[in-house]
Amino acid sequence: MQDLKRKLLLSYLQTMLQLPAEKQNALIERALPITRIQQTIKYQTLELPGTAETGRAWLSPHAMVHAYYVNEKTQRNVGTYIWNRNEPVLFHSSLYLGQERNHSVQMLEAGPVLSMSYEDLKKLRVEFPEIAQHLEQLSTKKEQTYQRRIILLSEPAETRIRTLEDAYPEFCNIASSTVKAIHVGLCRQTYNAAKRKMNKQHPKEPDERSDS
Questions:
Q1: 98 by DSSP, 3-state: which?
Q2: Cβ distance 56 to 116 under 8 Å?
Q3: How many CA atoms lie within 13 A of 114 on its CB side?
Q4: Cα–Cα–Cα angle for 157, 158, 161, nearest 5°?
Q5: How confident is the model over 103-112, as pLDDT tens digits?
Q6: Do residues 58 and 65 touch, judged by C-beta distance below 8 A?
Q7: 181 φ, ψ to 5°?
Q8: Helices 129-152 and 157-167 sit at what angle, rounded to 10 degrees?
Q9: What is the CA radius of gyration of the chain?
Q10: CA torsion sign, 9 to 14 to 17 to 19?
Q11: pTM of the entire structure?
């Protein structure tokens, strides 16, 4: 597992964070002992709501990940974030501001996952300014995506679905109708009805995946 951990860390640094070779090696050696690796299954929960101090940053190189919270009034899941493969999973408000985490993080596919505590990641940011800059850029981009999603929820159901499909085609290929529905603010029945209507209008489109 140690060799796999090194391989996955190196792959991320080489593809997502351009560093001189000597600094890259130093970062790998620093990160290895504070990084965990685990094998996961589809729809496995990685993290539940909790304090910022117990939060972790996750990296799933080969599987997509999403997050949601439970609406206390309706007791329904509300989708919040979607992460593509090899995209760091972290929450800016917890990492930088120490706010409590109110999301559950869930795998959408099976695969190895790396993780590091927020406390260790904050130390790494100080030692390697490139990491700090990289994380800031990722957080800003993700927050902008989240704000666009909030605005999107005021649109008709079909517009919401089409926007989700355009933004996250791979997510829409692998996620169940239930999971896709919570990310456009719909229940599964309404989502499926809207998709049936859309498929009638565009019959060449593939049918939706059914929940298993």
A1: coil
A2: yes
A3: 25
A4: 90
A5: 999 999 999 9
A6: yes
A7: -60, -40
A8: 160
A9: 18
A10: positive
A11: 0.89
User: Which ranges of 101-187 does DSSP label H, i.e. alpha helix?
Assistant: 118-127, 129-152, 157-167, 169-174, 177-182
Q: Sign (positive/negative) of CA torsion 180, 186, 187, 193?
A: negative
Average pLDDT across the chain, whole number: 91
Q: Per-residue pLDDT tens for 171-210?
A: 999 999 999 999 999 999 999 999 999 988 876 544 444 4
- Distance in Å from the first CA to the final CA of the chain: 31
Over residues 35-45, mean pLDDT: 97
Give how far Cα 172 sits from Cα of 5, 128, 188, Å.
29, 36, 14
CA distance 202 to 94: 43
Task: Look up residue 9 and give its two tokens.
Answer: 């860390």
Between 123 and 2, the more confident residue is 123
- 52-74 burial, b at 16+ Cβ within 10 Å, e below that, comes to beebbbbbbbebbbbbbeeeeee
CA 53 from chain centre, in angstroms, equals 20
